Amino acid sequence: MIRPLGQGAALLAAFSLAFAPPAWSQASPAPPPARLAPGEWPQGQSDLKPDPAIRFGALPNGMRYALRRQTIPAGQAAFRLWFGAGSMMETDEQAGLAHFLEHMAFNGSKKVKEGEMVKILERLGLAFGADTNASTGFSETIYKLDLPRTDAETVDTSLMLLSEAAFDLTLDQAAMDRERGVVLAEERARDTPGYRVAKARTAFLLKGQRLPTRWPIGKVEVLKTAPVSRIADYYRTWYRPDRAVFVAAGDFDLDVMEAKIRATFGGWKAQGPGRPDPDQGPVARRGAEARLVVDPGVTQSMQVAWVSPPDLSLDTLAKRRRDLIEGLGLSVLNRRFSAIGRGGDPAFLGAQVYKGEQDDAAEVATLVVSAETGRWREALTAAEQEQRRLVQYGVRQDELDREIEEVRAGLKAAAAGANTRRPADLANEIVGSLADHTVVTSPADDLAAFEAGVQGLKAETVNAVLKTVFQGEGPLLFMSSPTPIEGGEATLLAALKASQAVAVAPPAATAQVAWPYETFGPPGAVVERREVKDLGVTFVRFGNGVRLTVKPTPFRDDEVLVRVNAGSGMLSLPRDRQSPYWASSAVIEGGLKKIGVEDMERVLASRVYGGRFGITDDAYTLTGGTRTGDLPTQLQVLAAYLTEPAWRDAAFTRIKAASRTIHDQFESTVGGVLQRDLAGLTHSGDRRWTFPSRDEMASARLADVEAAIMPDLSKGPVEVVIVGDVTVDAAIAAMAPTFGALPPRPDPTPVPAAARAVAFPKGNAAPLKLIHKGRADQAIGYIAWGTTDYWADPQRARDIAVLREVMKLRLTDELREAQGVTYSPDASSQHSLVWSGWGYIAANVEAPPDKLPGFFSDVQKIARDLSEHEVSADELARAKTPRIEGIQRAMLTNGYWLGELSGAQADPRRLDVTRQILPGTERVTAADVKRAAQAVLKPEKAFKLEVVPASLP
User: Fold this and answer.
1) What is the mean pLDDT of the chain?
2) Cβ-count burial of 181 within 10 angstroms (0-12 exposed, 13-18 middle, 19+ buried)?
3) Mean pLDDT across the stretch 672-694?
C-alpha cells in the first residue's frame, strides 16, 4: 500500500470515528445517546478495555485527567487542556466569543499580566505557534503546550499557566479591545473560497439545525463591538471543571504528575449549576434537493449526501465491528473510484465516499466528485452509477480481502511502533476521543479487535451492511463551480435523476497480477565501507558506484525512512526554461513499465511502503517510509521507479486537466498569489523556480517532462539514505539485490561555479505590486534582504537565523500585540548549500491594504534598531532557547537525519553543518546579532513586495 508511514495507527480508530453504522432505518429507531456522569470515563459503560498504559482519573470537582508516561524521546512532554465547550454553546450575541476567549487566555490572568504568558513560555523553550497554541471548534476548545523539557520549573510553570486559563483569567476590557484587530485579522485570513463553500455546504446539508449558525470565527459585528462582559459570561458558564480534561503524555513520573494535577486543579470550583449542551435541532425531512455555489476560486466539485440523525450510542466492541465492516465496504468503492480516475480519459478527476458524524448534529454519508471544468455531468453520472453498482451488487471477496490486508499491515506497523510514539501524538489521540466519548484503546488491542472482526468475514456480510449506508434524507446534491451552470440547481437535480434512471451492470473481475520487480540482476558487492562514529553514520559504496548512507536510530520502533537522490536536480535544468516540477506527480502516478500503479497497490497490499517523487536543488528524489521487515519491498519499489517509470499519458492528462483552473484558485486569495509567484521572484525570474503560465501548462507535453528528468534518473549518480530501525548489515543486504544490482552509475562531478550562480533580487524603492482577486481588505506585505550562501560564512548564517527569531518576536510585539494589525506576522531566512551567493532574511504580514505602508516602515524601524543596538539578554534568550530546543527535538526524529545526510558522501562539509548547528547557535551573542543586522539589514538592499486586491485604485 502506498501511504505515509504511521497512518495505519489511526485506521481502526478512523473506522470507529468516521464510519459510524446506520443511524436509523424504517425498522429501528436511533440508539439512545451515551451519557457520562461528571468525572466518568466512557470505558465505565463499555466492554472495551482502555489502553493500560494510560492512567485515567478524576478530581472531586468533576475534572478528568489522563496521563501517559512516554520516556522516548527523553525529557519531553505534551500537555493538553480540553474543554467540552465551543462555538455551539454561544448565544447569538456571543457569536465568535468562544474563539475570542481562547485569544484572551493569552492576555492576562491573576498571576500573569497581559503579554507575559507567551514570553514566560519562550524563556522555557516553547515557541509561540509551534509549541504554544490553542484551537476552538464547534463543541470543544483545546489549549496545547509541547514541553521541550520535563524539569520541575517547566512542568510547574506550564501547569500554572493552564490553570490560569481554566479559572483565573482577568478578562480586561482594554485587553479585549487591543485583541480585536488580531481576531478580525484571523477572520480575514480564514475567509477563502474553500471556507465559504464549506459554510454553504454545511448550511445546505444541516438545514434548520444549530451547527451551521455557529462557525467558530463568529460574526464580524460581534467581534467588533461585543463588551468583555459577554466573554466573561461565556467563561463563567462553560469553563467548568466538569467540562474539562487535562491530558499529559511524556517523560514524567505518573504519581508525581497526578499529585501536581490534584494540587493545581483540585481547588477549582464551578460557578453556578451546569447547563446542558444546546439542542442541535432535528434532521429535517427532505427529498432530493440541489444547491449550486459559484466562486471563481474553487474547482468544480459535487457532493451527494444522505443525512440521518446522529448515532450517539456507547462505544462498544459490537459498534466498532459494525463500523469496521461498513468501512471496509466503502474502501472497496474508493478503490474502484481510484482505478477509474487513473484510467484513460476518466470521467472525473477523483471521487470518494465516506460516512461521518458531524458534531452530534447528524450522520452524513457523502459521495464526493471532482470534475474537470465543463465535464461535471459526466463526472456525476460515472460516480453516482459506481456508487449504486456497489449497493446493488456488493463487493467481491477478493476486493474485501485486499482491503483487509492493507488495514492489517497498517495496524501491525502501529502495534510494533507503539512504544516510541511521540508525546504530542499520544496526547492528541486521547484528546481526539473526548468529544465523541470513545474509549482510547491500545494499538495491540486495536490489532486484536481487528483480527477478531475480520475472522471469517464474507463479502455477503459486508454487502448486507452496504445496502443501508446511503439512506436518510436526500439525496442532497451540492455543487461548487468556478463558473455558472446553465439552468442552475434544476439542471443539477435533473442530471442526478437522469443518472439514477440508468441501470448498472455488475463490476468486472480484476485480473490477478504478480509483483515483477523482485530482482534487478546479480546482487552487488560492497567495495567500500567507512564509519562516521560521532554521528552514528556508515557510508557504503557498491561496485556499481551506487552509494549508501545508513544511520540506525532508536527514535521510532519499526520505522525506516528511505531517500534516493539521483542526478543533480535543478542544477541540471536550463535557467531559461520552465521547470517540470509542477507535473512531477506524473512520475509516481504513471506507474511502472511492467505494472500500473493500481495493480501495484493491489499486489503489495500486505506491505507498508511509500513512493514520492521530488525535485530539489541538487537531486531528483524518490522517498518512502516503511516498517523494518518491509525494507526490501520499499527498495524494490524505489529502484523500479528509478529505472523503469512508465510515463503513462493518463496521469499527465489528469494533471493538466486539474491545472486548467489552478491560476484562478491562486488568484482568488492573497496568499495564493504569493505562493505562486514568490519563488520565481526571489530567484530573479529564473525559470526553474517560476510557476508556469496557463498557456505553458496547456501546451505542455509529457515527452518534454520525461526528457528533462530521465537522463538524471537513468544515468546520473545515485545515493540512497536509509534512517531508522534498521542495522547497517540489514540495509546493505536489502540494497545489494536492488540498487546494488543496477548497471554502473558515475560518481558525482563538481558543478562549475557559473552553473551555481543564482541572483537574489536587488532592493527597490517602491514595492513590486502583485494583484489578487479576493477580499478588498486583504493584502500581504513582504520585505527581504539578500544575504549569501551558507558556505560563505557558516557562523554568520547561524547568527542570521537567530536574528530572524528576534525579528519575529519584534514583529509579533509590534504588529500583533501593540497594533492589532495582523494575526500571524512572520520572519524567515535561508542560506543555500547549493547556489553560490544566494540567501535571504525576510519578514511578511497579512493586513488590510492601507496598513502596508506602516508595515514597511515598522520593519525598517526594527531593522535600524537591531543594527544600532544590541538586543537585551531576555530577548536573546527568548529567541535562542526555542530555536535550540526545536533543533534538539528535530534531531530525535528520523526525518531530520534523512534530510541532513543527503548529499553528505559527495560533500562531507554537510556533516559539519549538522555538527555545528547546536554549538554554533548556542554561541550566538547579542553582539553577533547586531553585527549580522548591520551587515544585512541595509535599507537600500531591501526588496519589497505587496499583494493587493484588484479593487484597489
Assistant:
1) 94
2) buried
3) 97
